[in-house]
Amino acid sequence: MEQKKKRILIVEDEKDIAEIIDYNIKKQGYDTDVAYDGEQGYAFAISGRYDLILLDVMLPKMDGFEICRRVRERLDTPIIMLTAREEERDKITGLELGADDYMTKPFSLGELLSRIKANIRRYSGESVVRTAESDAASEDEIVKIDDLEINCSRYSVKKGGVEISLSKQQYELLAFLAKNRGKKFRQEDLLEQVWGYDDYYGDLRTVDVTIARLRKQIEDNPSEPRFIKNKRGVGYYME
Fold it and tell me: Which residues are paired to 41 by β-bridges?
């Protein structure tokens, strides 16, 4: 039986850039749709037909930040933001709104394709969160740390008995650190083992912002975390 092609939505108002991206993605065996403004892009995105969304920030009719925010209220589809801006604030905003990653133009097509592949693999369940010693995980494994409970079969997290809504990426990061309690991981390690990126690809800031978002969800006081900690120069860890 022939495997169904993965579908990617490209939301980009600069047609020459959209055409280059579209051509190269199709060469890799993906199906694509292209939207040239924010309203059309949002309408396509919420259809749920896509395995990944490439989303430009500066768009007519509705900007990429607003699309990301609205999509995240309904879907967990991976989103990679594309931006021509260099301001750190813009990158952080996209990640805080729920984007999985961002790329600053101009970017290499090789790097883009690598990130697309890694995000689709993670989203579709082709890759799983790994412990440092083993890639195997019990289907009904539940990890408990104080009042935090991580159900690895349901991909759910409870704190004090109340379920917390996490994105798939936030869940995988939390589960990885929980299963490897006491071990410290550099940002590069987490990009490789949780995001699925090669060492060469991925902005280290992505890790920091995702952990900051996660702390807001699970910590009583994110500025003084008791679950996810960071030892300067060594890495992130859970005690």
Answer: none
Within 10 angstroms of residue 207's Cβ, the number of other Cβ atoms is: 23
**Could you give the CA distance from residue 167 to residue 88 in angstroms, rounded to a whole number?**
22
Which pairs count as long-range contacts for 45-49, CB under 8 Å and 24+ apart, including other chains?
A: 45/9, 45/11, 45/71, 45/75, 45/77, 46/70, 46/71, 46/74, 46/75, 48/75, 48/77, 49/7, 49/9
- Residues with Cβ within 8 Å of 176's Cβ and at least 6 positions away in sequence, in order, are 129, 130, 131, 190, 193, 194
CB under 8 Å, gap of 24 or more: what pairs does 200-203 form?
200/111, 201/111, 201/114, 201/115, 202/101, 202/115, 203/91, 203/101, 203/102
Q: What is the pLDDT along the chain (239 residues), one digit of tens a residue?
A: 456 889 999 999 999 999 999 999 999 999 999 999 999 999 999 998 999 999 999 999 999 999 999 999 888 899 999 987 666 677 778 888 888 888 888 888 888 998 999 889 877 765 444 444 444 444 558 888 888 998 887 778 999 888 888 877 888 899 999 999 999 999 999 988 888 887 556 678 888 888 988 999 899 998 899 999 998 889 999 98
Supply the pTM of this predicted model.
0.76
Of 164, 160, 194, whose CA–CA distance to 177 is shortest? 194
